[in-house]
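User: Fold this one for me? It's Terpene synthase metal-binding domain-containing protein.
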Amino acid sequence: MKTLVQWADFCKALLVEARWYNKSYTPTLDEYLENGLVSSSGPVLSLLAFFSVMEETTREELVDLLAKSDVLVHCTSMIIRLCNDLGTSAAELERGDAPSSILCFMREANVSEEIARKKIRTTIKDTWNKINHEFITQSPFLQPFVKYTVNTARVAHFIYQHGDGFGNQDRETRAQVLSMLIEPLKIN
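Assistant: Here's what I get for Terpene synthase metal-binding domain-containing protein.
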């Protein structure tokens, strides 16, 4: 049942963004992030990961473990959302797309794009500190899930480090993915 709720929340979050776009509405940064953490797909990915890596878990254990991993899922979703915004916001601004965290902060604080990007990078750094704390303090039983979730945040950094490596794969991102997953390692 939790899976269906997560998917429903994800779809609702995407609809909220569509409404913002259609009404040319720019939310506050907090309002944007509250919705954006869900629309980032982080909670859905984490839930699917949970079922993939956790074996033979009872219903009671599952509810308890999901509650204990709430901070980790929140932080991972924050990293996914903010890295996506850093990588895609310039192109989205040009085409008049839905607002990003950068645009929301620019308008809310009346600052330049450069200052807004710096603020978002600082938030990402602070969020990584929280993830590292969760990584260290979680029970050993949760470690497979924790590793998967942390790796999801790492993938977001990788995909968006040179721009939109997901929706508009440039040669750089494509070459890196191919070298990691397809091409054999060259040993001299």
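One thing worth pointing out: The chain has a mean pLDDT of 82.
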